[in-house]
Amino acid sequence: MNPDFNKTSMRQIMAVGLAAGTWLGLSAFAVAQGDAKPVEHPATYTADQADRGETAYKRYCVECHGDDLRGGLLGGAPLRGQSFESKYVEGPASSLFEVMSETMPPDAPGRFSASGYADMMAYILKRNGFAEGAPLPSDVDALYDLTIIK
Ligand code: HEC
Known about the structure:
By secondary structure, this protein is mainly alpha-helical. The chain has 2 domains: 3-33, no CATH class; 41-147, Orthogonal Bundle (Cytochrome Bc1 Complex, Chain D, domain 2), CATH 1.10.760. It has helices at 3-19, 24-33, 47-60, 62-65, 82-88, 93-103, 114-127, 140-144, and strands spanning 41-42, 146-147. α3 (47-60) crosses α7 (114-127) and α6 crosses α7 (114-127).
């Protein structure tokens, strides 16, 4: 089967499963596929990406999310710590990227380029202690294949 089709349909199925609030559909899908847990490729980033992301973060995000990423003056959600990790760790890197690029900043979602969002995500990953390595992609399909994992 065409791998792109596979990837897209998998994402659609995940979206439907999540929207319905049921993991049952998803597990049934995994069982139907008969495959074991796929090999996980950790999402990594370069030092340059994280540096550029830090500059952008301090300009556009810090007021709401704080210098230490634990929440700032204007009440943004913490981007570090348990509540953050419970949402994104062990999930596909595309989830965090999509939340950022589709909803942040609240007054102008999508105002940055895809690579700009990838840079900011690199900085968030760095501050959460994830390892540097290969560049973090800025393409949602490529990010979907990577897992946020230590
Ligand atoms: C005006 C304040 C404000 C600004 C500026 C802002 N955010 Fe947010 N951000 C929020 C709020 C509020 C939430 C929680 C939204 C919700 O739960 O629906 C949030 C949520 C998030 C989340 C999801 C956190 C989670 O727990 O799922 C991420 C990631 C994020 N912001 C990143 C950014 C980045 C990167 C920037 C800079 C480009 C930014 N935000 C700018 C207020 C802000």
